[in-house]
Every structure is written in structure tokens, then in C-alpha cells.
């Protein structure tokens, strides 16, 4: 075991400690004045079930409790300010956490893969919430932000964390309802939400970030915002989408945006698409036909040349997708297909 001094628990103090089951850090591990739990301190302690963070601790550093797969209970210090990168990643048995008032920073992937976590309440003092902090929390059903938080909110009981100033949805769950004033879906905001079957993206949204809905394995139906401008890298990768209407407003579609959508059969691309990467539908074996507006065809020669299937001409989509919801997508697709076939 490493020495402890200068109010720190050293890196990797109990790393790969398979037999540890109950630890009260304040009494059994740390000096009473310890202020920081360092990197990897309890990483891979697979039998650790309960942890109590003493009151003097203000920071838990990166990976400190990562892969503690039996961890069920955490009592946080009232003076804790920072939870580091991947601190509780893959703590798959963790069901409930109570974050302390006074906490300021939750770093990226802090609770990534905590598959049994059911609820998250963000205190009023939190100022930073990292990307993918709750990604892969399959059973997360309730997300709430303290109403006095000046940086983030969960307006209209939407079950999401929203960056207030920019109206960016940072993190959602299977029960999230995207508010009608959201402008951007942030990177990995819904990634690995395996229970989502459909999503209706309001017309206020102009940007869908990288990995936003990636690995939403049950996602079959999507209605995209009619004011959407760009779709990020692997934004809908590894989903179960069958048919897709990309509205006229979309100008940019990044690499692998719909990567490995193995059920995808039909795609309609509107007239303003100017920058479609050639790999956006890679790994979609059932997709052999794409309907594109003639302007989009003219502006995306490389994509058109690289696509193995048929590219067919498509009329304007503006009026066709207006006021449509995901429930009407299948019917609309059929009408579009019939109209196009008649014209051809």
C-alpha cells in the first residue's frame, strides 16, 4: 500500500483490490485532514460495496472508483467541489447518488456506464457538466436540475440537463421530452439510451451534435427539425432507423452520421444539402436507393458517385414535412415514393 501524506491519497492506492467490501475512508484509510482522493485510488476494486467520503475531501480525481462493479452506496463529502474524469465509470451496481450542495464540477464520463443508476439531481452550485457524464446509464429515468442553478436547467420537467444560456440540451434519458426552445442537441446527449424508440426533434433545433443519438439501439422513428442545419459525426450511428426524411433546411451531414443503421431502407434528402460526406450511410446494407433533390445531387457529386445504389430525383420537401410528426413518417414516405415513381 502506498504511503499517504500532504493530505492526499496517492494514485492507485487500492487499485485491483478484489477483496475489499466495506471501507469507511475517514476511519480506515485516510488521514483526518485528507482533502483529495487521487487518480485510480480504488480503480477495479470489484468487491467494494460502500464508500464514505470524509468531510475534508474537496476533490475526487480521475478514475478513482472506475470499474467498482459492486459499488452500491456513496456518501459524498459536504465540501466536495470536483468529481473527476471517469471517476465512477462502469459502477454498474450503483442505483442512487445524492450529489452535495457546493459541488461545482462534474467532469466528462464521470458516471459513464452506471447502468443501474435511476435518477440524477444536479445541485444549484454545479457550474460544469462534462460530455458523456451520464452516457450509458441505461435505466436512468429521472433527471432534474435545482431551480436555483444559474448555469443549467431542466425546464418544463423535461428530464434533461440544458445549458441555459445557449439552449443546448447536454444530457437526456429515455423519458426526456425535448423542449420547444432548444437550439442544439449536444454531443452524445442521448448516446446509448437503449430504451428510446422514437424521437420528435422540435423545429427550434438547428444543430445535432456528434454522437447525439449514437447507439440508441431501439430508435426506429425520427422526425427531424424543419430548421435543422447540420447533423454531426455518428449522430445516429448504430440505431434501428428504417426510413429517414432529411429536410430541405439541412446543409451539412458529417461522416458516418448514420453509420451501421442496418435496418435503414429509404432516405429522402432535401434541396439545400451542400456538404454530404461520402461515408454517412456506411454499414447500412439494406439501403440501396436514395431520393435526393436535384440541387443536392448537383452539390454532392462525390457522395453521389460513391454511393453503390440508386440516386433518384426528389421534389421539394418543405411543404411535405411541414407539421409532420414521427407517427406520420411512414405514411409520408409511402406518398413520396409513389409520387416519385409516377414522375419517373
Any chance you could write out the topology, listing elements then pairs?
Elements: E1 4-5, E2 8-9, E3 22-24, H1 25-29, E4 36-37, E5 50-52, E6 59-60, E7 73-75, E8 82-83, E9 105-106, E10 119-122, E11 128-129, E12 142-145, E13 152-153, E14 160-163, E15 168-172, E16 184-185, E17 198-200, E18 207-208, E19 221-223, E20 230-231, E21 243-246, E22 252-253, E23 266-269, E24 275-276, E25 289-293, H2 294-299, H3 301-306, E26 310-314, H4 318-321, H5 329-343
Parallel strand pairs: 2-4, 3-5, 4-6, 5-7, 6-8, 8-9, 9-11, 10-12, 15-16, 16-18, 17-19, 18-20, 20-22, 21-23, 22-24, 23-25, 25-26
Antiparallel strand pairs: 1-2, 13-14, 14-15
Describe the overall structure.
The protein has 344 residues and is an alpha/beta fold. It has two domains: 1-154, Ribonuclease Inhibitor (Leucine-rich repeat, LRR (right-handed beta-alpha superhelix), Alpha-Beta Horseshoe), CATH 3.80.10; 183-344, Leucine-rich repeat, LRR (right-handed beta-alpha superhelix) (Alpha-Beta Horseshoe). The protein is 10% helix and 22% strand. It is built from five helices and 26 strands. The protein has helices at 25-29, 294-299, 301-306, 318-321, 329-343; strands at residues 4-5, 8-9, 22-24, 36-37, 50-52, 59-60, 73-75, 82-83, 105-106, 119-122, 128-129, 142-145, 152-153, 160-163, 168-172, 184-185, 198-200, 207-208, 221-223, 230-231, 243-246, 252-253, 266-269, 275-276, 289-293, 310-314. Strands 13-14-15-16-18-20-22-24 form an eight-stranded mixed beta sheet, with no helix packed on it. The chain is elongated, with a radius of gyration of 23 Å. The model is unreliable at 1-6, 8-29 and 338-344 (pLDDT under 50).
